[in-house]
Amino acid sequence: MLDALQAQPADALLALIKLHAADPRDDKIDLGVGVYRTGDGATPVFKAIKGAEQRLVDEQDSKSYLGPEGDGGFVSGLMPYIFGGNPERGGRIAGMQTPGGTGAVRLALALAQKAGARRVHLGTPSWPNHAQIVSDLGLETVPFDHALPDGTANLDAVLRVIREGGEGELVLLHGCCHNPTGANLTQAQWGQVVAHLQKTGAVPLIDIAYQGFGDGLSQDAAATRLIAAGLPEVLIAASCSKNFGIYRERAGLLMTIVENSTSQPVTQSTLNFLNRQNYSFPPDHGARLVTMILNDAALRDDWQSELEDTRLAMLELREQLAAELRQRTNSDRFDFIARHRGMFSRIGATPAQVEAMRLDYGIYMVGDSRLNIAGLNAKTVPILAEAIVASGV
Q1: Active site includes 303?
Q2: Does residue 63 carry a catalytic annotation?
Q3: Which among 69, 179, 279, 365 is least buried, having the fewest CB atoms inside 10 angstroms?
Q4: Are 97 and 282 in contact (CB under 8 A)?
């Protein structure tokens, strides 16, 4: 039976990881993997996480299963950060803990499919797993251009697909810190998106995986809040991997806003059913730590302070890289890097130019020229700028 399997397409990021590991150069620079790093290359554990873990070791008295929905306190604890005031939405929210943001996206698409959805409008470029999950579920992907050549988000393309989207079709949107471009819509443009969605039957699926990495916890949720307040049905996939620094703990959540409170129990039970068929019960550790932090004033203050330090460090690197490139090219054509938000930007290099930077400078980035800003430090920014100019980008 298994000998009938066919080889699957290689994952570009995993292949890049292997190439980087095999490179013997001490000065190689990894800008591929999407994790935050300090100036010395470490991915630290937040002080708040350490504190919560120690408390968990001392206090936890059972390792029994959670239910399919996971820890309800985890979901309710994060609602105010995502929705702001009045997070309950009149009993219209069904929520589930998931294995990471990836699990939330998968569950959202499976739920929509069970409700009759067949098409997903997806901006390109996007996080590669988006299209792969859509395809694996047998849904149709309808692509549209996310970004313009000047490094700004393509509002006209978004509005066009919303106008063309039929009832029950999904439009997948990044809530903040777009991956891989870093180019986000402005709040005024998000208002136009909401106005167009209100006129059609298209349902937004918001992936908000980097809240707190852009302009701040509240500011990064502004678009999601606007959409949630203005539409009868919304799917929201969120992740705690980045903003709590617990990548390997796989702590994510899916929240669905339904049209009225009478639809909530059926939606919740369907989510429970889908989780049961997929992985039965979600892991507890990461979500439990998040819940403990959100419910403890001292730990919560530590977390928010550490998250803000992380955000500001990335902004400083963006500004430094844009300034280096401005000085070396005597132009402002790379200034978009400073305007972008989140971990990623695409610099517009061809695959050949990306390969040249890897061979000549030991700089590793994805072939579409997506680079992880957080993989840089003050010493490597000038090296990257030199490589970009030398490769003819």
Answers
A1: no
A2: no
A3: 279
A4: yes
